[in-house]
Amino acid sequence: MASASVASLADEVNCPICQGTLREPVTIDCGHNFCRCCLTRYCEIPGSESEESLTCPLCKEPFRPGTFRPNWQLANVVENIERLQLASTRGLEAEDACPEHGEKVYFFCEDDEAQLCVVCREAGLHGAHTVRFLEDAAGPYREQIQKCLMCLRKEREEIQEVQSRENKRIQVLLTQVATKRQQVVSQFARLSQFLEEQQSFLLAQLDRLDGDILKQQEEFDSLVTGEIRRFSTLIEELEEKNERPAKELLTVRCETRKCRKPEAVSPELGQRIRDFSQQALPLQQAMKAFLEMLCFELDYEPAHISLDPHTSHPKLLLSEDHQRARFSHKWQNSPDTPQRFDRATCVLARSGFTGGRHTWVVNVDLAHGGSCTVGVLREDVRRKGELRMRPEEGVWALRLAWGFVSALGSFPTRLALEEQPRKVRVSLDYEVGWVTFANAVTQEHIYTFTASFTQEVFPLFGLWGRGSKGPVSLLWAQGWNQALWT
């Protein structure tokens, strides 16, 4: 910093004509400074004999040669700057010099870890020591630095890879959120239309009930009015007879008539009013179906699972439609192929996944003592010999047994659930790297694995114990949501 400041000051005291440090600086009428000799030569340039034609080399203001004024203060400043430059140069040379002898350092004593000049080396104090040239002595340190640099560069590359991978995950998640937003808007638009149609239908039903009630009210009023009129006539006749003499009264016969008691609302109409709430049942069912479908569309695509008999362990019995597996103690006559499990009683789905978001449901029906495993398996996992079910080996799975559920991580973790799941929903998000398990009946979350998938993964099913069986079904049937709104 000091040397840079000195250099900056030196630039300020340069002569505009020769571009060198000012020598015997003089000032002219305009205030600019020049070397005396430089300005004298400038005035002697051919064509400038007239004093009126002389102008400042910088600002072009006219000046007269006889007006040169020595600038002694500036001369002192120039002298001081030159001293500072000289001191700075000597300081830089002193940094590479031996502090004891002032000679340049060329050697390094490895025993004393000291830098030596020629005089130090010849003095005898380091005669029995290992003395090397500075560059040779610095070689091992340079190698060590290179190794550290390699490690640091490797770690930086790993961090950059993590950053790239996580940025891709973020982009995938942002895309998923945008898709979910579109699905929500679309589904609620359809729901709004459906609700308007249902409202119109129910209001029309209520309008018909209103009309029928008013019609029966008119009929009731007409009937009651007639009966009142009839009874009023009878009452008048009896009152007239009651006023007659006793002789005539004894010859009068009195007739009694029964009153008809009409109903304002017929039993059929009353039943229709009471049953009106049944008209809203389809709406209730449709709302439930809408919520289920919305959750489905905001979740994952249904995977069409079919068990692969070429991978099935010989103790597993598969149904004809390859949708069910059952454990049997009797070995099947199955060819021993590289794809087939020979020790783990497992079977894979026929198709795997290399991307996307997928979900499927496994119906679990375990007898006492039986257990099963559901999850996903990486393509390159060996199917011969012992199958180590943990993420490091390429398996992300749950184990369900009689009375407990465990997540098969690096160390199996027993999970505390509200109830033993009979239907397990498995959801795979390949790009984000999530394998999620949930109770397909109660929607209770069971466990989520986080991974980084680079190969094809397959749905995995394993069964142990007599009576264990694991029918596989799709989460949603095809065409289900189309039937809801049409």
Give a written overview of the molecule.
Among the domains are: 2-95, Zinc/RING finger domain, C3HC4 (zinc finger) (Herpes Virus-1), CATH 3.30.40; 301-485, SPRY domain (Jelly Rolls, Sandwich), CATH 2.60.120. Helices cover 40% and strands 18% of the residues. The protein contains 9 helices and 20 strands. It is elongated. The protein has 486 residues and is α+β, with helices and mostly antiparallel strands. The longest helix is centred in the middle third of the chain and has 109 residues, at 134-242. Helix 5 packs antiparallel against helix 8 (281-297). The two termini are 82 Å apart. The strands form 5 sheets. Strands 7, 11, 16, 17, 18 and 20 form a 6-stranded mixed β-sheet that branches. Strands 10-19-12-13-14-15 form a 6-stranded antiparallel β-sheet, with no helix packed on it. Residues 467-486 have low confidence and may be disordered. It has helices at 2-12, 36-43, 72-95, 118-122, 134-242, 246-249, 267-274, 281-297, 480-485, and strands at 25-27, 33-35, 69-70, 105-109, 114-117, 131-133, 301-302, 316-318, 325-327, 346-348, 357-363, 371-378, 395-401, 404-407, 413-415, 423-429, 434-439, 445-450, 457-464, 472-473. Residues 285-479 form the B30.2/SPRY domain. Pfam families: PRY, SPRY, zf-B_box, zf-C3HC4_4.
Classify the secondary structure makeup into a structural class: alpha+beta
User: In what range is the share of β-strand residues?
Assistant: 15-25%
Number of strands: 20
Q: Any idea of the CATH class of one domain?
A: Mainly Beta
> How large, in whole angstroms, is the Cα Rg?
52 Å
Largest sheet properties = 6 strands, mixed
Give me the number of helical elements: 9
Helix/strand order: HEEHEHEEHEHHHHEEEEEEEEEEEEEEH
Tell me the CATH superfamily of one domain: SPRY domain
